[in-house]
Amino acid sequence: MLLHHPLLYDSNATKASLIASVMSNNTSRSCIGPSHISETRLKLSKRAPGGNALGLSSKTGGHVKHWTTYVYGQRAQERVLEEEAPQVSETIPSIKIFPGQAFPLGVSEVESGINFAIFSQHASAVTLCLSFPERWDGEMMELDLDPHLNKTGDIWHICIEDFPRSNVLYGYRIDGPRDWHQGHRFDSSIVLLDPYAKLVEGRRYFGDASKKFSSFLGTYDFESLPFDWGETYKLPNIPEKDLVIYEMNVRAFTFDESSELDPKIRGSYLGVIEKIPHLLELGINAVELLPVFEFDEFEFQRRRNPRDHMINTWGYSTINFFAPMSRYASDGGGPFNASREFKEMVKALHGAGIEVILDVVYNHTNEADDANPYTTSFRGIDNKVYYMLDVNNNGQLLNFSGCGNTLNCNHPVVMELILDSLRHWVVDYHVDGFRFDLTSVLCRGTDGSPLNAPPLIRAIAKDSVLSRCKIIAEPWDCGGLYLVGRFPNWDRWAEWNGKYRDDIRRYIKGDTGMKGSFATRVSGSADLYKVNKRKPYHSVNFIIAHDGFTLYDLVSYNLKHNYANGEGGNDGCNDNFSWNCGFEGETDDISIKSLRSRQMKNFHLALMISQGTPMMLMGDEYGHTRYGNNNSYGHDTTINHFQWGQLDTRKSSLFRFFAKAIKFRQAHHVFHRENFLNKGDVTWHEDNWDNYESKFLAFTLHDNNGGDIYLAFNAHDYYVKASIPRPPVKKSWFRVVDTNLGSPDDFVTDGVPGIGSTYNIAPYSSILLEAKL
Asked: What are the DSSP E strand ranges found in 448-550?
């Protein structure tokens, strides 16, 4: 049974207010409102499986009553359909509605109530959908916004007085032109997520297959007290030249049972806190977190396809740019707890002197392509604004991301969305920096063409809120825009140095003709970055990252082994510059295992003595393997999960070497100078640069106080008898590193004396000597 009540305007208010009192059962909805604003109405609907809110209408009898009200001095006829309602299952409280305000976008608490505002330039109709999960079982209240009252420019808005300050779910139905060839993709049957939602409610537990098709709705919390950062809290503010970055995945870091954490916090933000002692023991001072914005781990399983067995565990498929991943909350705590626990994680890391850098994905979203769209937000709100389109090909989506769509980053509205998102994470969550996935996409215009001075890249570099942040580009995209060393930087942007990765790999594994390139890379890649006011630390040096081989696999596989990904082994990079040391994959051969261990130490030593900012991958400190899979984004298994048991087994060997090398770097400024090396900073013990077959390089880094460092890398398959230069006056050479030796002799921090005028350096090994009294 349904009882409709009139919507009345308060003539004494400066703003027109709409008073509605609606009573409903579970099978009907009400649609009532003044005739001159027929687009503003209340109705109840049930959310259908998959997240769409579908209205359940009913035709009823009863008599119609007419009366007159005044709206802005004008007469308006109102109709009310009345029925007898002897018993009503639940009552919707009276609400008072104002036109609202256009800013800020998203949900905000204003003096007159809770304000909702959303941008859509091309929409013809916008409906705000509201749900109270604690009170209604799957039902939604819908408010149709009147374009004459609830729209300012291209922003639709409404304000509700005395509305709950938390525990409300909301979304929007949006309609507009259906001209596909013009780039429009409106579909009013879908309830869409607000791009500016600060919290997102979806399924509560990561990988919960029973909730595979959960919808994602915005929510908010204006009731909780502000997070207490503490009176003694302070930001680490580590100079870029001193950073040692640890790339890691929040879930994979602690989800495995071997972490021995309470199951309720495994794979969560709180789990990271419990393992901070490991990070401190390793010696890193910054974590770079794989995406922690809300994403749908089941996106591959929404339709039948070769990847429908996979779970997105890396997270490079953003649903919303403001909300922390809710399923990284402990024990299915949901979005409110996710937000708080994320802040607890940042606070704890900062307390340990570790900075937090976020890997952010602004080049595309989860909404896929036109062939198999997954519409959750931007596509249905205003596809023509939010995505790059090919106007010469029936408005099809351009794909420079390799994921089906490309965010229209330099459109003014999208650019401001990205800037607002970045500021939000800095101001509200206190993060210290960002690594931008496929950043070359952000250097393209609205038609996809490369820009010499991209407005968004400049705005990020010049923004006052972001001025304290590290900003790191991945300077390429899937459309071939390779900008390593040429990225528009305004002397602020650092870059993932892909040339460093490739050249170091090729030299250490013994490729010919690489000695000069190796020297250039370890000395700071001046050929790429010594421009204007750029510094060596603008080169983020890495040999291993999340995509590609792990360090162990780099020395154990010649070929990728990606058949588990469902694409016939065709996915993933083919140019890995790897060497299996004589056997493909796992082996019991002692000589091969010894060589692999030596090579891993060689790679790590080269990384830690290089000028620039070093970055290593989670798990490499104990030799994590993915068994040759170099594209493991879809495996929520031991392929990606940190294996704490293996760490314990190798704590006194490989881990020990890694930790000592990191700490040795941090203790010696010659490895992380502010400026590029000059002639007085380095001596190259080399007169054979033009020998294509030479794979041996030795050099001395000079310290003003006489604490020189001698380094030699032998990539030959035979011993090299190296002449050791004289040490500084009153100093002697002490052997700190020889990767050919077993632990603990391979790294002796205080050094081993007795170094003569020559040193016999083993095949595929490296040494480090320090001049000391």
From this structure: 470-473, 494-496, 539-542
φ, ψ at 182 (rounded to 5°): -90, 0
Query: pLDDT at residue 46 above 80?
Result: no
Token pair 């050919």 in the structure block, residue: 740
Contact predicate 453/415, CB 8 Å: no
Within 8 A by CB and 6+ apart from 380, the residues are 174, 185, 186, 187, 190, 192
Question: Largest alpha-carbon pair distance within the chain?
Answer: 108
CB 375 within 8 A of CB 403: no
Choose between 24 and 208: higher pLDDT. Answer: 208
**Residue 628 Rama label (left phi>0; alpha psi -120 to 50; beta):** left
DSSP reduced 3-state for 443 = helix
Q: How far apart are the first and last CA of the chain?
A: 93
Distances (CA, A) of 306 to 303, 560, 564, 566, 568: 10, 18, 10, 5, 9
* Packing angle, helices 515-522 and 498-508, rounded to 10: 130
CA angle 238, 493, 413 (to 5 degrees): 115
User: Which two three-digit tokens encode residue 325?
Assistant: 């991943």
pLDDT (0 to 100) of residue 134? 76
What pLDDT digit, counting tens, does each position of 518-558 carry?
999 999 999 999 999 999 999 999 999 999 999 999 999 99
- Taking the CB of residue 60, how many other CB atoms lie within 10 A of it? 12
Contacts of 636 (CB under 8 A, 6+ apart): 206, 207, 251, 255, 297, 311, 313
Catalytic residue among 437, 477, 502, 553: 437
162 counts as catalytic: no
Q: Are 544 and 554 contacting, i.e. CB atoms less than 8 angstroms apart?
A: yes
The phi, psi pair for 273, rounded to 5°, reads -60, -40
The band of 330, judged by pLDDT with boundaries at 50, 70 and 90, is very high
Q: Which two tokens stand for residue 182?
A: 């013009």
Residue 30 scores a pLDDT above 90: no
707-736 mean pLDDT = 97
Query: Which residue is listed with tokens 């791009």?
Result: 195
Element (H, E) at 520: helix 515-522
Burial class (CB in 10 A: 0-12, 13-18, 19+), 45: buried
Query: Where are the strands (E) in 375-469, listed by range?
Result: 389-390, 396-397, 433-436
Q: How far is residue 572's CA from residue 563's CA, in Å, rounded to a whole number?
A: 11
**pLDDT tens per residue across span 632-690:** 999 999 999 999 999 999 999 999 999 999 999 999 999 999 999 999 999 999 988 99
Asked if residues 272 and 344 have their Cβ atoms less than 8 Å apart, the reply is: no
179 is catalytic: no
Picking from 163, 132, 157, 153, the residue whose alpha carbon sits closest to that of residue 145 is 157
The catalytic residue among 341, 474, 477, 770 is 474
Q: Is 510 left (phi over 0), alpha (psi -120 to 50) or beta?
A: left
**Residue 115 and residue 104: Cα distance in Å, rounded?**
9
Separation in Å, CA 230 to CA 224, 226, 280: 17, 11, 22
Cα 362 → chain centroid: 9
By the 8 A CB rule, do 60 and 83 touch?
A: yes
Q: Give the sign of the dihedral formed by CA 318, CA 324, CA 328, CA 331.
A: negative
Q: How far apart are CA 663 and CA 771, in angstroms?
A: 18
Q: 371 near 377, Cβ under 8 Å?
A: no
Placement of tokens 């620039």 in the chain: 612
Rounded to 10 degrees, the C-alpha dihedral 334/338/341/343 comes to -150
Helix (H) or strand (E) holding 765: strand 765-772
- Give 743-769 as a 3 state SS string: CCCCEEEEEECCCCCEEEECCCEEEEE
Q: Is 737 helix (H, G, I), strand (E, B) or coil?
A: strand
Cite the beta strand spans of 353-432 per DSSP E: 355-360, 389-390, 396-397
Integer Cα distance of 746 and 658 in angstroms: 11
- Answer for the pair 668, 758: CB distance below 8 angstroms, yes or no: no
